[in-house]
Design goal:
Number of helices: 6
Number of strands: 0
Distance between the termini: 27 Å
Number of domains: 1
Helix content: 40-55%
Largest sheet: none
Order of helices and strands: HHHHHH
Length: 112
């Protein structure tokens, strides 16, 4: 199956929220909500753990739908992914993702 690459280069199919949604797995939703609540010091409920992929039509987590600065920027610029942006090198928005994720960098086809 082809990877579902997010605007930032991460593979949505590797995300537990996507996995829980695709499998309609309430146990994984509960586990992910608990983990994300602890990691983000924010109340995240299992009901929020639904996403069809950030570039796909369909449901998104509240964060991905309305708070993700990377997604907002890419949509505003009408980009397929951040890899299509001429300003990606040195970008403060997506930079941390591609700096710490070799897979995201590779998925965006960035050479340096």
């Amino acid at each position: 199956m082809k990877k579902m690459i997010a605007f930032c280069g991460l593979d949505c199919q590797e995300c537990d929220v996507f996995k829980a949604t695709a499998a309609d797995d309430d146990e994984l939703r509960q586990k992910t909500a608990k983990l994300w609540s602890e990691m983000n010091h924010a109340p995240i409920t299992p009901e929020m753990i639904n996403c069809d992929g950030c570039r796909m039509n369909g449901v998104k987590t509240p964060y991905c739908e309305s708070l993700c600065k990377i997604r907002k920027c890419a949509l505003k610029r009408k980009l397929e992914t951040c890899g299509d942006c001429p300003e990606i090198h040195g970008c403060p928005t997506v930079g941390p993702v591609i700096e710490y994720s070799p897979e995201a960098r590779e998925n965006l086809k960035l050479k340096n």
